[in-house]
Amino acid sequence: MQGWPGKTQLAAGVLTVVALLSTPVAASALGAVPAGGDSATTVSATQACHTVVVKVKTRRKHWVWAKKMRRIRGHRVVVRRHGKVVYVHLHVRYVIARVEQVCAPTTLVSVPAPSPVSASLPVTSPPAELVAPAPQQAPVNAAPPTISGFLRPGQTLGASGGSWTGSPTAYSYQWQRCDAAGVRCAVISGAGTASYLLGPGDVGSRLLVAVVASNAVGASHPATSTLTGVVTAPSQPPINTVPPAISGVAQQGRTLAASPGTWSGSPTSYSYQWQRCDAVGANCSSVSGAGAASYAVGQGDVGSTLRVAVVASNSSGPSAPATSAPTEMVAASQSPPVNTSLPSISGLAQSGQTLSASTGSWTGSPTGYSYEWVLCRGARCRAIANATSSSLPLGRRDLGATLRVTVVASNATGPSAPATSAPTEVVTAPHSPPVNTSLPSISGLAQSGQTLSAGTGTWTGSPASYSYEWTRCDAAGANCSTIPAAGAPTYTLGEADVGATLRVAVIASNSAGASLPATSPQTAVVTGSTGGVRHLEYVFGGGAMSVYDIDNGFKQVESVTLPGTTRGVRGVAVSPATHMMFVSFGGDGGGAGNGSVLAYDLLAKKVVWSVNLATGIDSGAVSSDGKLLYMPDGELSSDGNWYILDTSNGNVIGKLETPGKGPHNTTMSADGKLLLLGARNYNHLMVYNTQTGKIQAEIGPLVGGVRPITINGSDSVSFTTATGFDGFQVESITSPGTPVLYTESFGTCTGSFTTCSHGISLSPDNRQLFVIDAIQKAVQVWDVHGVAEGVAPTHVATVPVNGLEGSEQNCAYDCGRDGWVAHTLDGRYALVGDSGDVIETATDKVVTTIPNLLNTRKFVEIEWSGGVPVATSGRTGIGRAG
Question: Could you tell me whether strands 8-21 and 84-103 are parallel, antiparallel, or unpaired per DSSP bridges?
Fold first, then answer.
């Protein structure tokens, strides 16, 4: 209410104002009303009827202006200042009064007393403008309140007040949480507004809201809404299963298009972020403003590669980013070609033969090529006059030299910079003695009683035969002397060799005569025969197999060249029963092509067979009797097939067809009964029973395509990692109805790796799980001893390790250092692939480093006893104790 003009305003007070309904009653008529609104008035009944004032209390207060009164000599008078009446601003409570006729017999009856009138003011009717029409009663609910909103944590529910009589002027709310049956409800502290934010504590509950409406008469009884449905936990955001891809020509002025890849979780939208990277697709930075599914290549991209990161969203929120492979290096528009892979030379480097040059790969759509052949003798090279075609006939001029070819590509804008091939082998005469091009080698354990074997090395001139001469040298490989009667390709070490090293000289012969001797590197220092158990770790990389003595500080004791494995080793499986090792190498299906498998006799130290398959290969497993080899078709394959090979000759004798895609990892249980089949692009783990020959379970769905996997010793629980996931899951094999027991996430998986936990190993006693965490560059250690009995995993330690970034050296393909981890057979150590670090499990500390392990994730332990293999760890550490 605004101040009244011309009236002096004073401080606010409180006044109770009585508003009358029906016929107004004069002030003198109120004289019979005693003070104290809760008492009753006794009315004489000597007359037939009496007129009385009946009060109706209200709870509302209003600000009003009233005349200021003062008591002088017992009388109340109005206060004036400068001749004007002084008004005071009062906070008043309305009491609504009405006049009623009460008729009764000639006895005293008790009637309700009217509300008391403030003793500080005379009882007068208030000014007309202060008397507001009042409702007859407090509001009454006509239609109950309602609740709207999504029943998931993080969502906000809204309450409508419902419908009411009595023209409510205010509403109050109180939210309540009830059990799933809607029977037991409790008031939610602090939830007193028309909206309510659902939290994790509401999952599994139902909610209601009670509303109280108020008007001038007072407050209503609470009106309660119907119960909501049960609040459910949110579903997971999408998870990438196939990375995004980029199509288009990587050239300035062209437009590239991104496909989002494949995702779980039914994405409803995608967002894109293009990245500019260096020539090998690393060191990327986001391109400002490039957030669409297409990207116009600009001048600033020339000389770089491009990637796109995609985030998929559904009702549960956004996914972790998934990043595409890099494009080719961006070429400038209307610019000369740029070489992306060097030219090469094919043909036999022999006088009378013809060499041919391939152009290599180029950007800029070359329309022509020019060639220049170069002859080199040592470091001195010169161009060969008039040798400018793609082929070169070899003659006497080229004997003893190597050849290179330089290629220049041209298009409409001009010629490229020259690109030069690698050199050929030394050119030889067609009927000259052999010439050594790679040195002989020695394989075998440098220990008294063991047998060493000589590899011939490689030679020109098609040798028809070889001769050998073994020499005994000092510890440094010098001061060598010939060992009498040691002229065979093998040599058995004796006590005389202990403390020495050995070399072998090889002479190759053909119809033109004998070569000069070629001498191998020296062996490790020969040790005495202990006759006890030995634990040896076999590490594969760069075409060689390096052997380390676990019991002797992981000292290297042997190195063996395995033919063909420079194409890239994908898996290793060992059968102690048949003392055979099976190595898969080459393409892992799809665009990588087909692969091969070789069998290596650990006792004879030689390859006994090698086969080229008509399929891809990957990480396989061998049966416990050593007769069957289970080989996946490769992670890049579009099918879900595992092939069964006869280990005696490498022939394919069977096939396991699964609904997966991209067969990748294979893990055999310790008892040989169960075979875990993991497909990179299939979010179910398949369990194959080797005794029944059938898939006994498909466990899932999991958080993504299955990556490294392991199993406990009782064949009841499996542990898996997944594509695009940093962490692990635990599954029940024996109760597939509720297969996923636990999911442990270390954080968001980002970066260049397709999975951030590429490596998982269970200790032999089934108690601890070691998992790669590429984001933290660490191994995470968890206590999992009771997961089969319902005990949740517990984090034990984070062990920082080297590596887990960049690329492996001397690697054929798939060279990212994304990691691997495996326990030794006795559980003392855990070895970390793509790191080189060795963790002592008793202390969770890195105690040593194996340099070769920095550039590979393929390694396996073999336990020897009495000179024969008796046990193997496999590539994955598995549980063994019951």
Answer: parallel
* DSSP assignment letter at 88: E
What is the distance in angstroms between the CA of the first residue and the CA of the last residue of the chain? Answer: 86
Are the C-beta atoms of 45 and 129 separated by less than 8 Å?
A: no
Helix count and strand count (H, E) for the chain: 0, 76
Q: Is 200 helix (H, G, I), strand (E, B) or coil?
A: helix
**How far lies 238's CA from each of 153, 750, 757, in Å?**
18, 14, 18
From residue 17, alpha-carbon distances to 64, 77, 615 in Å are 9, 19, 98
Looking at residue 648, the DSSP 8-state letter turns out to be T
Q: Examine residue 521 and say whether the peptide bond preceding it is cis (omega within 30 degrees of 0).
A: no
Closest of 276, 386, 283 to residue 752, by C-alpha: 283
- Condensed to tens digits (0 to 9), the pLDDT of residues 637-675 reads 999 999 999 999 999 999 999 998 999 999 999 999 999
**What's the rounded Cα separation, in Å, for the pair 588 and 31?**
106
Is the separation of the CB atoms in 66 and 15 below 8 Å?
A: yes
Q: Express each pLDDT in 774-814 by its tens digit.
A: 999 999 999 999 998 889 999 999 999 999 999 999 898 88
The C-alpha angle 553, 559, 561, rounded to 5 degrees, equals 155
Cβ atoms within 10 Å, residue 559:
17
428 beta partners: 350
Query: Dmax of the chain from CA atoms?
Result: 157
Which residues lie closer than 8 Å to 130 by C-beta, 6 or more apart?
17, 64, 65
DSSP code, position 182: S
Helices (H), 535-664: none
Summarised one tens digit per residue, pLDDT across range 350-372 is: 888 999 999 999 988 899 999 99
Task: Record the tokens describing residue 266, joined without a space.
Answer: 């039914």
Q: Which residues contact 742 (CB under 8 A, 6 or more apart)?
A: 729, 730, 787, 792, 793
Helix/strand/coil percent split, the chain, to 5: 5, 45, 50
In three-state secondary structure terms, 510 is strand
DSSP 851: G
What is the rounded CA–CA span in Å between residue 707 and residue 724? 10
Per-residue pLDDT of 25-47, as tens digits, reads 333 333 333 333 333 333 333 44
Q: Is pLDDT at 100 greater than 70 in this prediction? A: no
Torsion of CA 389, 392, 396, 400, to 10 degrees: 110
Give DSSP secondary structure letters for 361-408.
EESS--SEEEEEEEEEETTEEEEPTT--SSEEE--GGGTT-EEEEEEE
**CA-wise closest residue to 399 among 438, 441, 353:** 353
Beta carbons within 8 Å of 572's beta carbon, 6+ residues apart = 538, 540, 581, 582, 583, 584, 619, 858, 859, 860, 875
Strand residue runs (E) in 813-867: 820-823, 829-833, 837-840, 845-849, 859-865
Q: How far apart are CA 823 and CA 761, in angstroms?
A: 6
